[in-house]
Amino acid sequence: MVATQTPGPVNADPAELAKFSALAHRWWDPTSEFRPLHEINPLRLAHIEKLAGGLAGKRVLDVGCGGGILAEAMAARGAQVIGIDLAEKPLQVATLHKIETGSSVEYRLVAAEALAEEMPGAFDVVTCMEMLEHVPEPASIVRAVAKLAKPGGHVFFSTINRNPKSFLFAIVGAEYVLNLLPRGTHEYAKFITPSELAAFCRASGLEPNDLTGMTYNPLTKVYALGRDVDVNYLMACRV
């Protein structure tokens, strides 16, 4: 069973929730539409673990956890993980996979803003990966994430930059040429520049301390972290 939230307005686009719910049954298939998430997960996990000084024994929240790929990986590193999402079908898939693998992740159907009121300052690490570009009010998510993290805690975001190159690579290339993602996965207008995200963070009491890019080489089919933040990037903050 997935714990549900109390009724009320939520910062979510019903079309976005439906989009990911329709594909939920394929979440843990590494050859499916979610292949990129499986392939970048080791990079994300290592990056988070390095900057957070390890995950073992820490309380971790994964906001927008989907089917639980990152949440389960962090739990396997010894973290006490809660994964939250507003799409019920992916959470059901995550819960079933948890049972199959014996993972300790707790999944909840709840908005970040609602959980921030319930559990302020409860987490050593909060992650919000590949989610901000799918919500109507990303700044609201950032505020909630900041409230959920403990003083001195670590916060990690990943999203997509907004510029002609990101349109070419993240939409035209990834969705129409290379077929890495289903067409319609992303909307260019919802992309967020690093300066915009940094402003959201600082306004919420977070101090950005690392900006790292993620790139994909279509010839070698390899993802890598580096300095190029033109398309995909990760931003780490301290509370």
Describe what you observe in this structure.
With 239 residues, the chain is an alpha/beta fold. The chain has a single domain, classed as Rossmann fold, CATH 3.40.50.150. Helices cover 38% and strands 25% of the residues. It has eight helices and nine strands. A nine-stranded mixed β-sheet has the order 1-4-3-2-5-6-9-7-8. Helix 5 runs parallel beside helix 6 and helix 6 packs across helix 8. The protein starts with a strand and ends with a strand. The model has no long low-confidence stretch (mean pLDDT 91).
**Span between N and C termini?**
33 Å
H/E element order: EHHEHEHEHEHEHHEEE
Helical amount: 25-40%
> What is the CATH architecture descriptor?
3-Layer(aba) Sandwich
What proportion of the residues form beta strands (DSSP E)? 15-25%
Gross morphology is: globular
Overall pLDDT confidence: 91
Helical segment count:
8
What about the largest sheet?
A: 9 strands, mixed
The number of strands is 9
Low-confidence stretches: none
Secondary structure category: alpha/beta
Number of domains: 1
For the biggest β-sheet, the strand order reads: 1-4-3-2-5-6-9-7-8
